[in-house]
Every structure is written in structure tokens, then in C-alpha cells.
Amino acid sequence: MTENYEITKKTVHKLLPRRSPYIHKGDCGRALILAGASGMAGAAVLAVRASMRSGAGLTYICTPKANYQVLQTAAPEAICVDWDRVADKLAGRGNDPWNYDVIAFGPGMGVSASARRMLKAILLSYDGPLVIDADGLNLLAREPELTGFAQNYSGELILTPHVGEAKRLLEDVNLDQTTSREEMAEALVRKFRGIAILKGAGTLVARYSSALKTGAVTAWRNTSGNPGMATGGAGDVLTGVIAALTAQGLSPWDAARAGVLIHGAAGDLAADDKGEYGLIASDIVEELPYAIDEIINMDVTGDEDEERKS
Ligand SMILES: NC(=O)C1=CN([C@@H]2O[C@H](COP(=O)(O)OP(=O)(O)OC[C@H]3O[C@@H](n4cnc5c(N)ncnc54)[C@H](O)[C@@H]3O)[C@@H](O)[C@H]2O)[C@@H](O)CC1
Ligand SMILES: Nc1ncnc2c1ncn2[C@@H]1O[C@H](COP(=O)(O)OP(=O)(O)O)[C@@H](O)[C@H]1O
In its keyword annotation, does this UniProt entry include Ribosomal protein (predicted)? Predict the structure, then answer.
């Protein structure tokens, strides 16, 4: 790891596109989220609501039919996509093209055979930005075949593990008690050749420094967030934020860095309001619009450029 930077509100102020008065929902991107199998409709709700609260023009949720009622009540603005139809399409039946600007796979998906089939087919047939979280990461960790497909994915891959998931993904790499988070993020980039977001206090966003995907790895450390975010579902929210920013046209790298900062900033607003103990993931979702608004409207005149850390 040769370069280290910090992700600040000012970084994100520069990255977020401003909206034209004439913009319409088609200009704000289409995000497909696959989430919420087997009793985990909540994970799907959190990811979907986070995507909508972060500005995606259209958010689609592929989830089992049993979850539709929950989804259409908790997130009526989202469009439910039939799980079986997606499975058919992935199996080559039906010929409508992938019509999404980004796909996010994993929150509460479980590791069933059908979840595995879906991930495999997406890795083989989609070529847009692909965010893999939670059970998507667990599937990669269990299945060398899927790891191989991920390593050769034709689009840009964004992996969002916490340290526990990262250790599972890196079982073949020599990690020990002295392995730092920076070294772990670097190992993820070298293994999967995509963008690695290693979550936790001071989330790291890392990728190869050069487009050739060789040599040095660059890592940016997030400066927002607080211990109140150590609560179930907070990661599902992050997946939705990154999907929405990518759908709106940020590059996966910019969406990853902006996404973690905005997610942490929303968590900080939630902690200001409720304190750290009682903060829940839904509170982070509700603060996303205020965090984004504050960052877009912040005054940066006369500020020094202080992103480079070392
Ligand atoms: N309402 C819902 O439907 C929710 C669904 N969720 C989904 O539930 C599924 C499984 O989540 P689990 O929490 O069971 O599995 P995890 O893989 O997140 O956690 C399993 C174990 O991994 C270890 N671990 C977790 N975070 C760690 C960290 N930061 N550092 C080191 N070790 C860590 C701990 O030993 C933990 O008990 C995921 O698909 C997730 O998206 C959760 O997000 C919670 C909310
Ligand atoms: N102490 C902390 N400081 C800052 N951010 C944190 C802290 N603990 C957790 N977070 C953030 O909250 C989210 C938790 O995600 P994750 O561990 O995947 O939870 P879940 O699987 O329940 O959704 C991550 O984005 C992480 O960076």
C-alpha cells in the first residue's frame, strides 16, 4: 500500500453531481437490488429505502413473493421484480436485456441454492457495476467457482465486507493477529481485482492505483461515522447508498468513497438526535437526505486541499 488519503465531506462535495432543473427520473438511474430471502425482508427494506433516499431515479427490488407485501408497505416507491422471472432470465429464458445501471446483491439473501444460482448468473451475464454485500460475500467465501467468476467479472466489482466477512473471503491468505486493516483491504483488492470497502470504524475504500490492476494499492479512509452504527442492518443501508450513487452516474470508485462518507454522516446526524445506544439502521436511512443536502450546500470557499494524508 503506497498511498493513503482521507475521505472528507469536502471530497464528497466535489464528487456529487448537481441536478439540472430539467432532470427526470430516467436521468437519475435504475438500481436493481437482490435482497431479503427467508425472513429477512427487513434487510431488503433497508437497502431499498437507502437507495431511494440517496436519489436513485428508480429502485427495483428482486425478492421472494412472500416479501412483496412488506416491501410494498414499507417502500411503496420501489418496484418489486419477480424472483422467478429474474431466475428464468438468468437461466437464458426470456430475452429482455439487463436494463439496470447497477446491481447490488446480498443483504439478507441467504446462501440457498437459488441465491447461489442468481449470483453465478449475474457474474457471468451482467457487465455493469456490481455491489456484493453480506450473503453475496458469504457465497463467494464458500465457493471457489464463484470466487473465480468474481475475479474475472467483466464489469466493476465493489465488495463491502466487515472484518468478519473479509476474514472468510481471505481464508487462503496468511492473516494473523498482527494483520492490519490496511493489509486486509490490500489483500482483498489483490485477490478480487475490484474495489474493496472494508467496513468498521474508519472504513477503508481501496483499489489498484493503476488501471492495469498491478502494482500499488490506494486506500482512502472514511472520516465520518460513530459507534452507534454498530447495529444490525447498518451495512444493508450502505449497500443501498452506493447502489443509488452509482445509478446516478458516479463511477463505482467515486460512489464507493462518497457512499461511505454520506452513510457515516447520516449516522452522525442520527447519533446527534438519538445518541449512540438507541440508534437503529432505519434512523440512518432517515438522515440520508439531510446529510446529502448538508454536503452539497457546504461552503468550501478558501478551504485548503487537505485530502492527501501521507
Ligand atoms: N432486518 C434484517 O433482515 C437484517 C438482516 N441482516 C442480514 O443478515 C445476514 C447475516 O447477518 P449476520 O449478522 O448473521 O452475519 P455476519 O456475517 O454479519 O455476522 C456473523 C458473525 O461474524 C462476526 N462479525 C460480524 N461483524 C464483525 C466485524 N465487524 N468484525 C469481526 N467479526 C464480525 C461475528 O462473530 C458475528 O456474530 C446478512 O445477509 C445481513 O444482510 C443483518 O444486516 C441484520 C438485519
Ligand atoms: N464503531 C463504528 N464506527 C463507525 N462506523 C461503524 C462502526 N461500527 C459499525 N459501523 C458501520 O456500520 C455498518 C455496519 O455494517 P455491517 O457490519 O455489515 O452490519 P449489518 O450486517 O448488520 O448490516 C458499516 O458501514 C460500518 O462501517
Answer: no
pLDDT of residue 67: 94
Residues lining ligand 2, judged by CB closer than 6 Å?
A: 134, 162, 199-201, 203, 225-227, 229-230, 232-236, 238, 263
Q: Which CATH number fits domain 3-297: 3.40.1190.20, 2.60.120.380, 3.30.1360.170, 3.30.1330.60?
A: 3.40.1190.20
Q: How far is the CA of 121 from the centre of ligand 2 (A)?
A: 29
pLDDT tens-digit readout, 14-71: 999 999 999 999 999 999 999 998 789 999 999 999 999 999 999 999 999 999 999 9
Q: Is residue 58 within 8 Å of residue 81, measured between CB atoms?
A: no
Beta bridge partners of 80: 61
ipTM score assigned to the predicted complex = 0.96
24 is in an annotated binding site: no
Q: Which of 273, 244, 268 is nearest to 256 (CA)?
A: 244
